[in-house]
């Protein structure tokens, strides 16, 4: 009887050990803290990865925080307040130029074009870029990626933004839409959903896309400190696999289905407006369909920064872009 009790006890302990091992190995979740630079329909694949359970499938518990601004986002990442930052790739160049001991490395792209649009106050039957000459143009904050892309596109179309326009750049990013709505400027460079909202309300009219005009650029990427990449590579492979699933899902699904999937992240925005914005971004290829950041896009980014006088130094692609994680996922 004692022998039977001992055997039963051993069997019970063995079952406990097996169950514990399974829970730690298979079903336990790895937490990844992500700081996003803003909350935007432009980042739809990220929210899809959450709402459709792609992170959960990869065993990831995602903690998402909106840090409102590139400086805040990078501070959060570099100080250890976040594991991953979703922000413009140009910020990694700024950090690198400051000779950071533990630089921020780009490992997956989310959007591959600029996300702003040219909006006119008056409805134009036809539009030529020369129509901007001599007009008051309400641009984005100097030194920011929207402003750099905006000036790049203007130059491409034969316009010197500082000589041919009455250029206003001293209004805070968040106040640009309200400034235009209250009567400032003949033309304005706007993100969504303000551009589509203004068109729906008759406040302005979308006449061109800076994203289409400027070409492929790593506009918004996921980055992590070099040390985190080295220590947690497999965790980031799982993270990137979830993002890739979402990118493919967004590429395949109609805009109304995508809007339904992300509507909970935009409580103050109508579902119909979200669908319009998603459709506009999808139609111009803003959502990356692969996490792999390409060398030509990296070169285009530095060209745009250089033309704007904001490139502190040229940085080689392989210095600040990690391709091994995306390549593992794509295999």
Automatic annotation (TrEMBL):
This is NMT1/THI5 like protein. Gene3D superfamilies: Periplasmic binding protein-like II (3.40.190.10). Keywords: Signal. GO terms for cellular component: periplasmic space. It holds the Pfam family NMT1_2. It is found in: Periplasm. The keyword Transmembrane helix does not apply.
């Amino acid at each position: 009887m004692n022998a039977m009790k001992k055997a039963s006890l051993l069997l019970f302990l063995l079952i406990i050990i097996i169950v514990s091992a399974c829970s730690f190995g298979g079903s336990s979740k790895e937490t990844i803290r992500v700081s996003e630079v803003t909350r935007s329909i432009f980042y739809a694949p990220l929210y899809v990865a959450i709402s459709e359970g792609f992170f959960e499938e990869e065993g990831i518990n995602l903690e998402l925080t909106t840090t409102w601004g590139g400086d805040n986002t990078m501070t959060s990442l570099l100080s250890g307040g976040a594991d991953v930052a979703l922000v413009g790739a140009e910020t990694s160049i700024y950090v690198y130029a400051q000779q950071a001991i533990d630089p921020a490395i780009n490992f997956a792209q989310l959007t591959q074009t600029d996300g702003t649009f040219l909006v006119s106050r008056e409805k134009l039957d036809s539009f030529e870029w020369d129509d901007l000459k001599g007009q008051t143009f309400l641009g984005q904050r100097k030194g920011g990626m929207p402003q750099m892309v905006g000036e790049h596109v203007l130059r491409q179309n034969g316009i010197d933004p500082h000589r041919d326009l009455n250029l206003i750049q001293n209004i805070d990013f968040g106040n640009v839409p309200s400034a235009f709505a209250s009567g400032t400027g003949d033309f304005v460079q706007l993100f969504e959903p303000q551009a589509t909202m203004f068109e729906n309300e008759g406040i302005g009219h979308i006449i061109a896309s800076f994203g289409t005009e400027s070409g492929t650029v790593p506009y918004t990427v996921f980055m992590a400190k070099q040390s985190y990449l080295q220590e947690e590579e497999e965790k980031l492979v799982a993270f990137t696999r979830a993002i890739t699933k979402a990118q493919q899902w967004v590429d395949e699904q109609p805009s109304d289905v995508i809007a339904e999937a992300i509507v909970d992240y935009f409580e103050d925005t109508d579902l119909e407006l979200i669908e319009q914005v998603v459709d506009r971004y999808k139609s111009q290829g803003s959502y990356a369909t692969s996490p792999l950041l390409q060398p030509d896009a990296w070169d285009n980014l530095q060209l745009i920064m250089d033309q704007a006088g904001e490139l502190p130094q040229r940085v080689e692609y392989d210095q600040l872009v990690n391709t091994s994680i995306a390549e593992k996922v794509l295999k």
